[in-house]
Design brief:
With 261 residues, the protein is α/β, with parallel strands linked by helices. Helices cover 34% and strands 17% of the residues. A nine-stranded mixed sheet has the order 4-3-5-2-1-6-10-11-9, sandwiched between helices.
Length: 261
């Protein structure tokens, strides 16, 4: 490695993508150009020697909670949402393999014709062999979000950080910046602060899992093409959520006003 090459800060990461991220500028479904962009971002960081695992939501196709509110059985609605995440995982796998990135989809629901079953040791072995691993079908259980699946899988595979990719929002704010121009960006905060302030970074179960296992979370804008590379270089990008004694995490109320990128 030459003197100008900086070793990445993290060796193994978990990237959480929302289903809505795959929509691009569409109102629903999958935008092939956006999926290709995401695949290119993953390929770029993997080329730095980083082992990449990812969990994708299914909100661009189906939202189980919304369907349950309209009268559908919650478990049925959630299982349908899990199937939506498998569709998204297959789309991302195809985009990655189109640029010659070896990829495996591991599903928490058995569907052997299109995905491998989730086995922890197998997932780790794929990562060690330089393959991108996409975890599909959430946790395989209703009543749990894909945020919780991302936190759980990250802990199981020994990921060093959970990267929460947001669509057009460059971090965590005190309010919705799209509705409140005075919303303040929080650069650093602890897990308990995120829970107590009700910031809706991710669901409480997922946050609690990260807190119990001291897994740092970085929230950033997926549309920022340099964000992940800068994070891997050790820069503070977006919002860091971590234990109070990690990397100077503190309440970021005074971080100043900022808008989504």
């Amino acid at each position: 490695m030459g003197p100008d090459v900086v070793s990445p800060r993290f060796k193994r990461i978990m990237l959480k993508l929302s289903g809505e991220a795959l929509m691009g500028d569409q109102k629903y479904g999958i935008d092939p150009e956006m999926v290709a962009y995401i695949a290119g971002q993953i390929a770029q960081i993997q080329s730095q020697g980083v082992e990449v695992a990812t969990v994708i939501g299914g909100g661009n196709i189906w939202r189980g909670v919304s369907a349950a509110r309209r009268g559908m059985d919650r478990a049925t609605a959630d299982y349908m949402g899990m199937l939506a995440t498998v569709i998204n995982a297959m789309a991302l796998q195809d985009a990655l393999e189109a640029i010659e990135v070896r990829t495996r989809v591991l599903s928490a629901i058995t569907m052997s014709e299109i995905a491998e079953p989730y086995i922890r040791r197998r997932a780790i072995r794929h990562l060690e062999k330089g393959r991108v691993v996409i975890f599909a079908a959430g946790t395989g259980n209703p009543y749990f979000t894909t945020d919780t699946a991302a936190a759980l899988r990250a802990i199981e595979i020994g990921a060093e950080v959970l990267l929460m990719a947001k669509n057009r929002v460059d971090g965590v704010y005190t309010d919705d910046p799209a509705k409140n121009p005075a919303a303040t960006k929080l650069e650093r905060l602890t897990y308990m602060e995120a829970i107590e302030l009700g910031l809706r970074v991710m669901d409480t179960t997922a946050l609690s899992l990260c807190m119990e296992n001291r897994l740092p979370i970085i929230v950033f804008d997926l549309r920022n093409a340099e964000a992940m590379s800068r994070i891997l270089a050790g820069e503070l990008v977006g919002t860091l959520i971590s234990p109070p004694d990690t990397d100077g995490a503190r309440r970021g109320r005074g971080a100043g006003h900022a808008r989504p990128s």
